[in-house]
Amino acid sequence: MKELLLRRKGKFIQYLFASFLFIGDHFAQMGIFVLLLRAIEKGDMKHFGYVVAITVLFIFYAPVNFLISRLLRIRYMRDTILDVRRQAFDKIINMPFKKFSAKSKEIYISNLINDINTFENKFFISLLNYLINMGMFLFTIIILAFLDYKLAIAMALQAGLLTALATLFTKKASALEQELSECNENFTTDMANTFSGMEILKLNHIEEKFKEKSMASITRAENKKYAAAFFTDMQKHVIRIISFASSVAVMIYLAYSFLSGMSLSMGGFLFQLCSSSGNYLINAFPMRNQMKASMTIYKKIAEPEEDREEADKGSEEFVFQDTVSIKNVSFSYGNKEILKDASFTIEKGKKYLIKGPSGAGKSTLMNLLAKTTEDYQGEISVDGTDYRCINEKSFHGKVAFVYQDVFLFEDTIRNNIALYQDIPEEKIQFAVKVCGLEGICADKKAGIDEKLSENGKNLSGGQRQRISIARAIAKEAEILFVDEGTSSLNEELGREIEKVFLKLDNTVIAISHRYYEGVTDLYDYVLEIKNGRVHQFSAQEYFQVVVA
């Protein structure tokens, strides 16, 4: 946090200066109050006129002072929040894929929106108020030390007591903010899931059921928000009671001082200082706790993780010359065993089709082979090198994925194929040709440099899939993982896309429920999963039995 605040030292100094402008403004108001009391004591109209003139000047000065302070503060706050958003996004985007995929993407959206908004609203408001109130308290103690050292000591002792109380509240405040953050994550996930399935909800008339579930999620989030707000107010009230008792003691002390000849203006000024010092602390300490709670949120969403295991990325380069070997591999979700003692090999350049009933473990097997899941028993190795020892970045640099839902971005066809990598033009053109994209590019005014709309909405499903395959070819991926790559296409398009897969020189590992006669038979092997066991067949043998 210190590094974040001091990243722009010049602007942070301006922020502090802007914060302390409020202090000058506050003490100027108190000074005017003392001058008015003294003018009343003197009964001199000329002196009273001077005080009125000073008051009028202050009325013009105050809004200018506020505007300058606001402009200096808001610029620093804006730049710092941009840094937090950038750090949070960098943390997510640079996260190892296995770690990223362990959470729902809606949680990351909640971190980038809800948590950062919470940090912005609570941290900077708390920091500003804490600086102003503690600054005014310190100035008050200094002034009291010159005017009445006994009162100065008493106020300092009161501050010590309130500091001890505030420390007791800190842990609970941080815990409440953490719980509120988790409730926001769950709420965002629930809403995203509900809206994603809205068509099914409407068609089956079960909106009310999901409305109840959504309202329960909203209620939990609001209850946590209420608890956090209530706890903050409770802190203020506890401190306010102590401050009130202190003010009563000060009034008794000043009453005795009046009997000893203290002037009205001095007594009024001392009472203002003492009563204000309590209010400063009432405002400052809950803000201090909110800042600490906000720092918990900052650490969660934006601060780099010191304990990130480098072993998670591995140290060996991914080199695939011969085979990927799976030996006695088992995998479970909780107590449910998905794969049991699986053993088979993947040969370079061969085409493998994973088959099995829904829930059999097809995606699990592909995730193991794609190195996105490593919590398994047994051994997976490539040319003798254990999968767990392979550098994640090296692995991802030599494999490619084709999914049912193709992700395209608003840029040219070229950049959607090359993914902003420096790929030679001849390789891009080869990928275009192999994937049958020449006709598409020829129909576009700008050819391969035609810009696509959001997620390629100006292309058909088949064209979008061809681009995703072209990515793998241009990248020269050694292994192409295909997860239901043709399931959203019609029979004719699906057949054509599957032909493209099977004509590639790459090793292909695919999941598909479809069977295209005369095409699907061209896979080299079928890996069938039944009751957790993986059985390997030649495609010709497998489909002869199935079709028959």
TrEMBL record:
One GO CC term on file: plasma membrane
Transmembrane portions of the chain: 12-36, 48-68, 127-146, 152-170, 238-256
Signal peptide: none
Compartmental location: Cell membrane
Annotated coiled-coil segments of the chain: none
InterPro entries assigned to the protein according to its UniProt record, in alphabetical order: AAA+_ATPase, ABC1_TM_dom, ABC1_TM_sf, ABC_transporter-like_ATP-bd, ABC_transporter-like_CS, P-loop_NTPase, Type_1_exporter
Residue span, ABC transmembrane type-1 domain: 16-270
GO MF annotation terms: ABC-type transporter activity; ATP binding; ATP hydrolysis activity; ATPase-coupled lipid transmembrane transporter activity
PROSITE patterns: ABC_TM1F, ABC_TRANSPORTER_1, ABC_TRANSPORTER_2
Name of protein: ATP-binding cassette, subfamily C
Domain of life: Bacteria
Main location: membrane
Protein's membrane topology: Multi-pass membrane protein
Record keywords: ATP-binding, Membrane, Nucleotide-binding, Transmembrane, Transmembrane helix
Pfam family membership, one: ABC_tran
Key word Disulfide bond present: no
Domain ABC transporter as annotated: residue spans: 324-548
